[in-house]
Amino acid sequence: MLKLAKVIVPLSAALLLSACSGFQLEKAQMATPSGSNFNTGLYNGYLDLANSEFREADYADSDTFANRAMEAASNKSVQPEAIDMRHLPADKVGELTSARADLVAALGAGASGRMPAEAANAQVMFDCWMQEQEENIQPKDIAACRTGFMAALAKIQEKPKLAAKAPAPAPAMPGPYVVFFDFDDDKLTPNAKTVLAKVVRDAKTAKVTKVMANGHTDLAGPQDYNTGLSMRRANAVMSYLLESGLTKGKILTDALGESTPAVNTGDGMKEGRNRRVEINFAK
User: Fold this and answer.
1) Of 135, 138, 195, 203, whose CB has the highest number of CB atoms within 10 Å?
2) What letters, b where the CB count within 10 A reaches 16 and e where it falls short, cover 79-105?
């Protein structure tokens, strides 16, 4: 499926996108990256994957990669695809889980800033491997994605050569954290409170200056209603954090409604993994 070279869809083909699934590709092609070099690399890589899947008539995965390309273009934090987002063969879960952990560790150690192109390629190749392994019908494509990922990972895991002993790296920032909500509800569940208790402990230990709580909903219900619901969920998290001793000035909230689902579904679909508040720290 892949070979990450920029592919430009002709105008005549682009005009056909609105008549079938995969319409997100057309929107992704019109996006202009506005953030870091790493996110620009992610945008180009995911756009290539979206083009490739569209040519194979895999419109669902084309949409998935196109959406990730647009998120990267707008400089959002795009994480490597989570293991539970794909229905993987049981005998491949362990290897992919280990590979993702290695990738996240390398990115967390600063590879995205030090080697943005190589780091972006490693993440794109990992998501490519995940997608092909879920399909599990094209051994050559699986091998190509896996090999590409391993080669890119090896590059970003290399330690830079220093003339003098480097200072000890700063401790990695804890998080991110996610709390989930019941359908059409903004009340914190017992599980959510357990997660938030850890957020409070980690925030105090790490002495963070900002706690960002972004509310989300699934795609069931009107868009305006969902925006308000996502704000109420973010405020519920903020109230818990304030009651637990965090300073109000440290907490920032945002209502993203149904605009950035964790799981891409059709409009009007209920999906528990989209009913969430994502929490991140900043020094």
Assistant:
1) 203
2) ebbeeebbebeeebeeebeebbebbee
Tokens 């059709």 belong to which residue?
Answer: 266
Q: Please give the angle made by the CA atoms of 125, 130 and 132, to the nearest 5 degrees.
A: 90
Judge whether residue 11 has pLDDT over 70. Answer: no
- Euclidean distance between CA atoms 198 and 10, whole angstroms: 51
Q: How confident is the model at residue 5 (pLDDT cuts 50, 70, 90)?
A: very low
Distances from the Cα of 17 to the Cα of 21, 25, 67, 98, 232, angstroms: 7, 8, 15, 37, 36
- 47-59 pLDDT per residue, tens: 999 999 999 999 9
59, 69, 122, 126, 202 from 46: Cα distances, Å? 14, 5, 12, 11, 33
pLDDT for res 265: 93
3-class state of residue 4 by DSSP: coil
d(C-alpha 249, C-alpha 64), whole Å: 36
Q: Which two three-digit tokens encode residue 196?
A: 């938030």
Q: Which residues are CB-neighbours of 92 under 8 A, at least 6 positions away?
A: 133
Length of the chain: 283
Q: How far apart are CA 132 and CA 120, in angstroms?
A: 18
- Banded model confidence at residue 172, pLDDT cuts 50, 70, 90: confident
Helix, strand, coil in percent for the chain, rounding step 5: 55, 10, 35
Calculate mean pLDDT across residues 19-24. 64
